[in-house]
Specification:
Layout: H1 14-23, E1 26-28, E2 32-38, E3 45-49, H2 58-75, E4 82-88, H3 97-119
């Protein structure tokens, strides 16, 4: 099992982001809001949104994006065939990283349960 995060695993174009936002299937908590849309591919893709309102400084926004990408890279095999957009709602630093990743775990688990119940 390869744990890479290739270009093909990312949402890059505005249209790709827009289609995920349009569906509006989302879950949120204090740290993140996660949108999901089936993509018809054999792998999951990730898009990230970290606005200046969340973290004014670019290095803090980049840290949030880097940690979410790393989490997704390690868990992407559990989410095949779905596009996700993760929107950060609250900035965090190294001391709160574990708490934020636990919150992200919970959101993806909620979305998976929601998808399972709607497909049965």
């Amino acid at each position: 099992m390869a744990y890479r995060f290739r270009r093909a695993d990312r949402l890059l174009k505005t249209d790709e982001f827009s289609s995920v936002f349009r569906l509006r299937q989302s879950r949120s908590n204090g740290y993140f809001q996660v949108y999901a849309l089936p993509n018809g591919l054999d792998h999951a893709r990730l898009g990230l949104v970290v606005g200046k309102k969340v973290a004014k400084r670019a290095n803090r926004r980049n840290y949030i994006k880097r940690t979410v990408r790393e989490w997704f890279r390690l868990h992407q095999h559990d989410f095949a065939g779905i596009d996700y957009v993760v929107r950060a709602k609250l900035a965090y630093t190294r001391d709160k990283r574990g708490e934020a990743m636990t919150a992200l775990d919970a959101l993806f688990a909620k979305l998976a349960r929601c998808r399972a119940s709607s497909s049965s």
